[in-house]
Amino acid sequence: MSERILSFEKLHTVIYPSSKDGAQYIASAIADLIRKRQGEKKKAVLGLATGSSPTDVYKELVKMHKEEGLSFHNVVTFNLDEYFPMKPESVQSYVRFMKENLFDHVDINWSNVNIPDGTIDVAEVQSYCQSYEQLIEEAGGIDIQLLGIGRSGHIGFNEPGSNDRTLTRLVTLERITRLDASQAFGGEQNVPRRAITMGVNTIMKSKLVFLMAWGNGKAEIIKQMLEGPVTDSVPASFLQNHPNTKVIVDQPAAEKLTRFNEPWLVQSCVWDDHLVKKAVVWLCRQTKKPILKLTDKDYNEYGLNELITERGPAYLINIHVFNMLQHTITGWPGGKPHADDSQRPERAEPASKRVIVFSPHPDDDVISMGATFMRLVDQGHDVHVAYQVSGNIAVADDEALRFAEFAKDYMGEEAADTFKEIEQFIHEKEEGDMDMPELRKIKAIIRRGEAKAASRYCGVKPQNVHFLDLPFYETGRVQKSPLSDADVNIIVDLIREVKPHQIYAAGDLADPHGTHRVCLDAIFAALEILKNETYMQDCWVWLYRGAWHEWDISEIEMAVPVSPEELLKKRFAIFKHQSQKDGVVFQGSDSREFWQRAEDRNRDTACQYDQLGMAEYEAMEAFVRWKF
Ligand code: F6R
Prior knowledge:
By secondary structure, the chain is α/β, with parallel strands linked by helices. The chain is built from 21 helices and 17 strands. The protein has three domains: about 5-255, Rossmann fold; about 270-325; about 355-625, Rossmann fold. The two termini are about 20 Å apart.
């Protein structure tokens, strides 16, 4: 944890190594208030949020209730918002969310719980909202307000344009907010367009505010709210005018803050190679120059005088960074056999390596590292691929029905009844309903078949293709179970069996609760268990990024060039995942197809290397080495 020391941030910011640590801190502060008020025989008034950000806080509070006897009998709560219209019993309702995550597990008096009502008549909304404000006032105002932040910069559902005089009211949701909610609703089209939300002014009246953000998906908006001006285009920035707000973030959510991204602008630095590389890449972007054309004047004009003084002149720094970057490029991701490897990212020996490519979903391997995957096979390594989860919930119903019908037509009577049941289930299925087991099975088989086809296309031996079906994923819902020993042991067993020299894993830290992150945590937990086994001393772990982001150029430790032909082959491998093509169940905020995103991203990496003065490639896949 590090307090604000030298930074551009305009609010008190506390950075924790993980979201769990941050959540624990907030939960303890809430528990302290509840207990203090109990001592004074008074009520504690909490403003509560929903979404992924506060779930660990609620988990901690439930734990404190169960293990330490923390009572909620004196707690009054006001939730920030609710979709409109919304039935309280709907899977996506915030009433249901609050019950499942907190209220059903503690001794709160239900009459002390206030959540905006998504069922009232539109004509009555205005007076309802006024009464919500009045209730807060009558309760003595909010003591602690919990907030998440949307990627639009919203707090509550106060979207850009909401000013600091706004009170509880009916609002229209931004597209980005609806896209972020589309997973939970099974598609953007099902997300309500409106919501009832407390206003910015309502929030500003709270005595203490905790705003939480976890994961690097929030890094950009956290930078804007903390370092940018107070503006209604980032409603969270109004908190800069609140006298008692604490921003609690984990490291990935803080990564774009100036103190981390451009630390030389705020303080004196220890200039190790990593920081020198980061600063030089940044300077090239600022000046739009390649590395070898940077001058002492450039360094001085952009605040890098200290670097020039310590490691200069520019000529020496330039050459050093140029060589460092040059040495990350290799067409031999498994190492170049019998070659001098002192300046290469991978070891030359053993010439033929055992490799495991872990793919969280059945298509991440080809999307994120398809060209490297094919090179590893072509260069004679013993490549295994392990698909961590079944990916069944991402298959559309009509796609599943098509396959069910195929099975019925092929098998005749034998499959007719099951087909009928599936057909009827889909026909009657309501938004948010969990799929019947047979339908989930068909969806899993579809994805399995696609992964088999893609790995076959990449040249992997059938016996080297592993479907792990990690149990944490198999809830049939977007919300997954927590990682358990059962998940980790499956990975431990595979690593023990293969004894790999190289492991590739999706190093996706964007969403702390997302499947990629859980899959990565499962691998890290397995490596922790195995770290003392002899073969592990010889195992290198390379992280690729999932579909959404790429490593920053200054972080990349291995960049594998991709020729135009290889890029096309990679595209065809991605095409094997037919159920994820032409509009997918979980599109997210990017309307491009996966192959387009992959190509754009790989071309962009190559272009950035080119702009820094390296050779010009068609595309590049990038990796960072994870060290034990
Ligand atoms: C939820 C709410 C929203 C969320 C925000 C972040 O009650 O009011 O402002 O806090 O959209 O959502 P998550 O935490 O899911 O990223």
